[in-house]
Amino acid sequence: MGVGVDVNILSTPTALCPAANTLNSKEALTITFGSGATQYSSATQYSSATPAAFGFTTTYQQIFNGLNGIVNNGQFAFVTTVSPVASSWHQDTVDHTPNDDTTTTHGYMMFVNAKETPDDVFRMTINNLCIGSRYEFSVYLANIAKKGTNLTPPNIKFEVQTATTPNTLLGTVATGDIPAYATLAWSNYGMSFIAMTSSVILSMISNASGGGGNDLIVDDITLR
């Protein structure tokens, strides 16, 4: 059974561009990471469950099974649930995407064990935007550490820049420390920007020191 690769990239014809500085009501990008029958996406069975299949890059190493269920520093995996092996994590947490489970498959999310220094968790070039229109780049994030564990909280910086050289920064914002809760809670983070060119680069960068903690899950990336 193959993975469902849920990437939806829509081009907006120039003639249908909304008025300048008006938030686009249509989604130009949706990534939900698909679904599968195993906890970890498999390199052999589900070869499409890779960043390249979803159209983005990352400086993190993808793993497909986890060493004793652990995603180590500098690694990520597409998973259906958070591994139950670490007592400090919200074990068996499922993805955020609604209605993506069946009797045999479950939705994937991106589980990231962030590096000790800032680096790209997500980087993607988007084309065919309407120049002068306002867009919103957003994602659902959660800290997988339980409240009271005193682990380093993740912190993600969003950046949008033109895809032309030299790159012009169109906006940046950071989540701040993503809090740990007694019960895991997904929160929607993001930023808006005005497209100065028809192609832009969207980035999410780990903005916290590594070490103990700095572990997060990512789901439902959108641009609209």
Question: Can you tell me about this structure?
Answer:
With 224 residues, the protein is mostly beta strands. It has a single domain (20-223), classed as Galactose-binding domain-like (Jelly Rolls). Helices cover 2% and strands 34% of the residues. The chain is built from one helix and 14 strands. The strands form three sheets. Strands 1, 2, 4, 5, 7, 9, 12 and 14 form an eight-stranded mixed β-sheet that branches. Strands 8-13-10-11 form a four-stranded antiparallel β-sheet, with no helix packed on it. Strand 10 and strand 11 form a beta hairpin. The longest helix has 4 residues, at 51-54. It is globular. It starts with 6 loop residues before the first strand and ends with a strand.
Beta-strand portion reads: 25-35%
The biggest sheet amounts to: 8 strands, mixed
What count of helical segments does DSSP give?
A: 1
CATH fold-level topology: Jelly Rolls
- How many strands? 14
- How many structural domains are formed by the residues? 1
Mean pLDDT: 85
The topology string of helices and strands comes to EEEHEEEEEEEEEEE
| Unreliable residue stretches | 1-15
**Beginning-to-end CA distance, first to last residue:** 31 Å
Helix content: under 10%
Radius of gyration over C-alpha positions, nearest whole angstrom:
17 Å
Q: For this structure, what is the CATH class? A: Mainly Beta
At the fourth level of CATH, the homologous superfamily is: Galactose-binding domain-like
| CATH architectural name | Sandwich
What structural class should be given to the helix and strand makeup?
A: mainly beta
Morphology: globular
